[in-house]
Here is the input.
Amino acid sequence: MTTSTAAHPRPAGPAGETRARLRRATALISRSPSGTVGCVVLLVFVAVAVAGPWIAPENTNASSSYSTDLLAAPSWRHWLGTDDNGRDVLSRLILGARSSITVGFAAALVSVVIGAAVGITSGLAGGWVDRLLSAVDDFFLVLPFLPLAVVLTSLLSERADDVPGGRLGILVGVIGLTLWAGTSRIIRSQVISVKERQFVERARALGASQWWIARKHVLPHVLPLVLANTALVVSAAILTESALAFLGLGDPLNPSWGSMLDGANESGALTQGAWWYFLPPGVCIVLAVLSFNLVGHAVEEIVNPRLRERR
Here is the structure.
């Protein structure tokens, strides 16, 4: 008795295969409580970042947002109180989500692209190319990335007008250039593992070029690892952006959670007990980083069957 293939149709073409993989990934994430919570929190932050200018009660950059109610406690008019300039904290918190999330995503993209390119090139080329790129990788791994990011941001801030995106563009570039080394090391190890497998040796024996092997065999095996690592890099980028903004190196025209903490520290809100000024941005940073980590670990379980077997 033969089984009808109509009941289980195969996806048609690459688009169908991609949709099938996304459905399987969604199903696997939904089975993980931590992955589900991370996705929900992440979607909320992304929605707030996108709709921020329309849902914020006030435009905190407008002169009319400044009032005489300095560090006023939460009330019906200001649900999260006001800051040291009389501006609505809830509005700054909502608008700050866009800067923090945008810088996190953009910096992670720069970091992952550089790390993946260096890791794949190093793993495939071998020889002196591998040794040279590995030495550069080791150099960036040894350097403390936060002091390096502080120095680079301080030096480049003077040229903010010449950089696309201004200070936010500088933050994206600096964070991306200081976080790529870990991704490169992970990708290089995976590439070396893949290129020693029999199907790659067979393709090489049949005369396949390095570019063809990289496109047909290496990238499909490396891409899931890149996606899993991206979520973890985003959380590190958000933390770094918050740290730089807290040190006064953020964009003064675009509020972020880190710059709110900087303002709370400079105004003495901590010593005055004005919790509504420093606690909400701190909680948002923690929740955003935690959600990206939860999603990253859930994706890692999807791409690594051994982790699913341990559960």
